[in-house]
Design goal:
Length: 455
Amino acid sequence: MVERETWATRVGFLVAAIGSAVGLGNLWQFPFKTAENGGAAFVAFYLIAVVLIGFPAMLAEFVVGRRTNVNAVDAFRELGHRNWRLVGGLAVATGFWILSYYNVVGGWVLRYILGSATGAYFDDPGAYFGAVSAGPEAILAQALFLGIAVAIVALGIENGIEKATKVMVPSIVVIMVVLAGWAATLGGAGEGYAYFLSPSLDAMVENAGTAIPFAVGQAFFTLSLGMAIMITYSSYVGEDDNLPFDGGVIVVTNTLVGILAGLVVFPILFANNVDLALTGGGGASALFVAVAAGFAELPLGRWLGVVFFVVVLIAALSSAISLMEVTVSWAVDNFDVSRPTLAVAVGLGLFVLGLPSAWDTAWLTWFDNLAYSLFLPVSVLAVVVFVGWVIGSDAVDELRRGTGGLGPFGPLWLWTLRLVVVVGVFATLLLGIFELFLQDDPTGIPPLVAGAIFP
Ligand code: PFF
């Protein structure tokens, strides 16, 4: 058997994981949910959810991956709990399911880069979105996006994912900072910032029923948890990496990019008096209809549109490759077939599963709602129960490796995982199930814990 790959550098793991975390969730969910639910007051709440739930759960995934240095399914066997491979299998399947429609959205982004360059959506962004988001054209664009992701993953950890994300992640940050600087000069900047961030406890309290589950759900979605990504990426990590430190860098950068996104989009919307109802409170229409309408009104709108949607593309792509690696890594560990061949095979499978979503956005919504409200929380819950209660103090030992001692943080982490994270994720899951199956909603689309694409 060939020796298993590893990241060439410590930073390699870090940028790849940041690339995974920074995705559409940061760009089209976080800013809009923040604005709707109390601005800075919501950010404070979201940070609590990230610190108490997202961060500890991420460390749990890291521990499973680095301890075993194997794919997310077989990791559970390596840890001496064969039956728990089911949990790894669920996480891998959840990731595959989510990626099938994430690629479709990636295809839309490609169309918007083109549409910005030609000004095709400038007259009527809503109609343009309707035209490119479904049907044969969406299938073609999906295939293109998927092709790029397959090409990167086929090159492997060091030569593919690490090299690509080392360029992609700094580009996202630099371009976003430049765009935010430019947006600050727009007429609507002050109003935009106020709409985005002015703290309102009233709004927070009034919307608590939707804001709290969103903050908790987002805390694990935005950190790419529950899809076996962090288990897989950390399985290529060396012993001397300091996992809590790396986790902290990922969490902070991920949050900053969400805030930067708000500093870019709201000045654009306010400078051009775009109807805020078009944002739909976050999700696909926020970027593809509302922000797109903003570019239509701006001088140099075409070029700004291209730059903006290129950032969206990079963010989506660096997330998609992380998710593709989950299945490919499992396949590489289990079949005596070359990585490129397996990457192509996985790509073909994803293409087929993505066909309904590309054909009709109603399917995409259905896939997304099921993933977001059911598969993801079940999968996060199972992993944290496993790490917290089944492997317990061994997990703390693994976390400690490479840190030079954790002090009281070790047991504190374990008990947070065992109690706070388990209860928090369980509550989110119950709410999701309630919305999915029990609520008397004629559309069948859950409004409260709705998915990530069309909230
Ligand atoms: N952290 C990603 C985001 O916020 O968009 C979540 C994600 C979704 C990762 C889909 C990977 C992926 F393919």
